[in-house]
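Hi, here's the filled form for the chain we discussed.

Project: internal
Contact: R.S.
Residues: 205
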Amino acid sequence: MMLLYDAPSPAPNPRRVRIYLAEKGLSVPMQSLSILAGEHKSADFVAKYPAGQLPVLELDDGRMIGETIAICRYFEALHPDPPLFGTDPAHIAEIEMWIRRVELTYGSAIRNIWIHTHPLTARVVKQQYTEFGESNRPLAHAAMMVFDTALRKTAYLAGDSYSMADIALLSTLDFGQFIGVPIPDEAEALKAWHERVSARPSASA
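And the returned structure, exactly as it came back:
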């Protein structure tokens, strides 16, 4: 039987998979590990999955699938309805484009702020470069304004239907707010979108 190694909120990446599964109506056996306690870096876990990251999906044949989008794509192939990665070539590409923008612009900035400025990570990283971390705040702000501009034109990030791009953004935005990076007041469309998607039952996963 497959097993999803999970971590509780506010960890954004495990939550991303949980939201996806909730949208699909799928139930998967899970084992929760503590990131702050370093359980994902234990010798036993790293022996199974050398990357030592969460989440990771262990298949019944022992193969390990890491990275949130890869895990969700695995389930999408098995359970294509309702589609969360698009239904036609253009929409599939558009969703992929926005996922990449979430991860490579906003997500990267949030990660650097988290690692280099937050007191919780000071307990687990060897060195914090606070000035570098703080320099990422304008980058996070700029990325959120890009999302705001897009959401002034469409109901969801990649068009008129809720998709994996929205899940990626929601989980990262909420983590950003947890570490002290709020949605800008002027990002009215992004704030309205955040309120709508946060009201979906899956958002509490």
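Let me know if anything looks off before we file it.
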